[in-house]
User: Fold these one by one.
Assistant:
Number 1:
Amino acid sequence: MALSVSVWSLAVAVSGCFDGTTRTPPGEAQARRSSQKPEKSSNRSRGQGEGRPSDTVAIAAVGDTAMGVTPTLPPDPASYFAPVEGELKGDVVFGNLEGTLTDVSESPKCGPESSECFAFRAPPEYAAYLAGAGFTLMSNANNHSFDFGEAGEEETIRALHEAGIQQTGLPEEITVVEAGGRKLAFVGFAPYSNTPSLTDLDAAEDLVQEADRKADVVVAAIHAGAEGSDAQHVTGAEEEYLGEDRGNPEEFAHRAIAAGADLVLGSGPHVLRGMEVYRDRLVAYSLGNFSGFHNFTLEGALGESAVLHVTLAGDGSFCAGRLASLRLVEEGQPVPDPEEAAAHTVAALSAEDFGGTAIRVGPGGRLRAPSGA
């Protein structure tokens, strides 16, 4: 029987799960509170988020984010994200910065005789455009963060910080932010020496456990999996791209959650992948391309994009969410997609790849956990 509005509202208040747009039936949410994974320690501080009951945190997240490659840059970078700025809102707004923000011009990655080599850089001042769009935290754990060597990476991080954007993704780096009255720890993982390791699972577990000791909620950002339009499925096995080990995203996510992670945000494949709820925690295996002025190929699945909105309970468990469907048009600019192709794609991929643990995607991209997850 459907809940009346008044009973529903009371139940939402009691469960503490509300994101302003999406509600998960609170009886289900409470019943799913993990018996498999213990709650965060009760001696941690509790706060009251704006416009929501206490003990919730709202996160907006996107995938691979770029703004061109110097000198091929948007003619009006200040308005580049304007079509989707309304979606880039939350206690934390997160993206994977696919590239660098630097004036360093020589890339150790691409020599003068190299071909088919991609080295991404935009001017350092472009960090202000990311901040203006709403981003508050970016991951540098990816295969393009070191395109211009150590100097380029350092300038990128400095530019982000000067623009008021925090970052994560350096070796052993745990970035703790205050949001929604709670402490959130972000850790970025990728299969490279200048990032926390995606492929050394024991070391990754240790880092997640350390993050869990420092914060109420732990978010693991992973740059994992094969790339391209034929890489939309999570295989459950080790994945490669151009001979490079890109890890086993499913094994990594499950072990990270067992170690204390509360949300896993994926990037790297450049296409959307399915989502599942594992031990009451949401795993988004790939959020696809978010933006790229001539950075990425946009045909078919490569042009489907999204903003993930997720609300987590105080113990880090998944409360509710919404997947805002976007499409990359013309020169890699994200715009809202009224056809909601991304939501349909994620729904289908989730069901095919995860069965009983697959996220459920409803009208408007609303997300809910499967019964019994």
Note: The domain at 5-368 is CATH 3.60.21.10 (Purple Acid Phosphatase; chain A, domain 2).
Number 2:
Amino acid sequence: MYTRRVLAILLANCVAALLVVHSAAADPADLAANANIFMYPKPYKVADLVLKSPSGTTVSLSQYRGRVVLLHFWSINCPACRLEEPLLQQVKQSFGHTGLEILAVNLVDPPAQVANHAYAHKTPFPVLFDGGKGFDLKVVTMAGKRTAFVVNPNKEAILEVPGFPTTYIVDSTGNAVGYSVGPARWNNGAALALLQNLVRKQGTQGPRASNPRVGPYTMR
């Protein structure tokens, strides 16, 4: 029952995010307006996530240190997630060979359904869920608005997920440099330039991480 309530709240926020995306497109000069991507004034370190893949492999965010990561929170029944999914696949196709990875995290749907979705859609990037590791989404009310936070096994809130989809842009040092709530326009020129710049920088910030194998559905 709690999971259904979380999903209902975040899907409602997802609809609101869609409205924000369309209304924001008026200013063509701004990255936020063009692509629904917002940059942090100062990057901050993202706490580690330890999750499971459909193949049973344990996958942690820290394994991808040295790569640019799009940490993407989604649900199966989210219309905006379905809208964004083809664009993320294009990003993976364009940048995957350069060291960029997309981690699609689902903490609300049953793991079996998440696995079936990954296989059915031949998702070209890791699709992850909790798998008993103790990571969950907790809904809270802040300033009169409902939102959710990823909570780790120590019951610490480590990332906010206001609605689906929410995507964090994590650079190769493990710092979040930007985010998107609602579908981002990853095929927009400003978004592509941002990813290219981050990928270019990663070569100067230490060795590239190995690429963990997370399931037979992953196309490399």
Note: The helical segments are 2-24, 31-35, 79-95, 111-120, 189-202.
